[in-house]
Amino acid sequence: MLRYDHRNLLRSDLLPAAIPASRLADMQPACREAHEEILADRRADILGFYNLPEKDLGPITDFLDKLDPAFDTLVVLGIGGSALGNRALYSALKTERNLPRKIFVYDNVDPVFLHEILSQINLDVTLFNVITKSGTTAETMAGYMILADLLKKRHPADYTRRLIVTTDREKGFLRQIIKREGYPSFVVPDNVGGRFSVLTDVGLVSSAFAGMDVVALLQGAAAMRERCSEPGESNPAYLNGLLHYLYMREGKNISVMMPYSNSLYDLADWYRQLWAESLGKRYDLKGREVLVGQTPVKALGTTDQHSQVQLYTEGPHDKVFTFLSVENFAHDYTIPNLHPDRDEVAYLGGRQLSELLNAERLATEIALTRARRPNCHIAFPALDELHLGEFIMLYEIQTVFTGKLLRVNPLDQPGVEAGKVATYALMGKPGYEKERSEIKDYQAQRGE
What we know:
This protein is of the alpha/beta class. The protein has two domains: 3-40 and 218-406, Rossmann fold, CATH 3.40.50.10490; 48-212, Rossmann fold (3-Layer(aba) Sandwich). It is 46% helix and 14% strand. The protein has 17 helices and twelve strands. It has helices spanning 21-26, 28-43, 58-66, 84-93, 111-120, 138-154, 173-181, 201-210, 214-227, 236-249, 265-279, 309-314, 343-346, 353-370, 385-406, 414-426, 433-445; strands at residues 3-5, 73-77, 102-106, 126-131, 163-168, 185-188, 254-259, 281-283, 289-292, 295-298, 319-328, 375-382. The strands form three sheets. It has a five-stranded mixed sheet, sandwiched between helices. Strands 3-2-4-5-6 form a five-stranded parallel sheet, sandwiched between helices. β8 and β9 form a beta hairpin. α2 packs across α15 (385-406). The protein is globular, with a radius of gyration of 23 Å.
């Protein structure tokens, strides 16, 4: 079970300006109201991610059972929620689990990035998974058209078995392509938004292909859902969400997630989208301009002790910190005592590398606490599917709950649409002539 330590988010002799425990008690009516709203949303089938632990894995298992075992690589074509979860899970476990198959994620239209991926794979034994619910995401569809064309030219007789599509169950451009071409397909559920979709086919297909235990992943999510089923301080998602909400209200508008594990670094990327896109809102549910949100930042321990911690300890008091750590690593090294006569390094001799890593995490926690910077700690007993499933469900529930406290819609992303529309106009998509004219006016005003 994940261990959540929130003590350094509460007022103490070391943190005299932190949130007092009495504030938590004062907020319980609001927390219960948020909880009831979540229950109502679940009854209305709006929060589909809650139900994913019971997901039928049969279609994924059947597909993989029939798959040619020669395929040893899968390239995910997606962006945002269609990509970040895939990368986070694979990065977390590829070394710990010695996963037998490789995953690449193409989530940017940078042509050099695409070239780098293509230069590292063998097209003859590579699958491509195109993931977009709408089938209109410009970045993903550009990649799809390039790679589908490449596959058709390289393997004209059987290109359809080398590309799979994950999209809306019934509608959209890609569903039409699936029917015409016969590509294998998977489903993005209607009631699960992209950034909450890692435990759907969006993330499970690549995870199962790579060799992860997706059953354990869902079991971990189910365990955390149960742990977070009731309001109160025993619910880590509500407690952490409430404390972050209270700190937001006190001007702590930056949330730093700092894993002390390279394997968990991409999980902080997944968190950044979830937290930023869900809570960064101009308007509340009543249409009032509120301009709320907490900027998520990722840092890596110990690397960023030497690049960011100076700012964190002595810079502005505008941040809340979350440390992630791993208690038991699958691989470790003993530091040899090569210079027993030198005090400068002899103290390291005979110690484990993991021991040094976790000592540095605690040291950073102590330094931040003494600098009166609020922080909390989530410890993974081990890096495995069960605990990753717990973490994903923890933060998805926490995000929705915090959105309820902020009185915003944590499931939409209206601020993203303006950029999409401008992209369509710039690239000449029909129906966006008015926007294209407005862009020309903008460019003229800038003298371009």
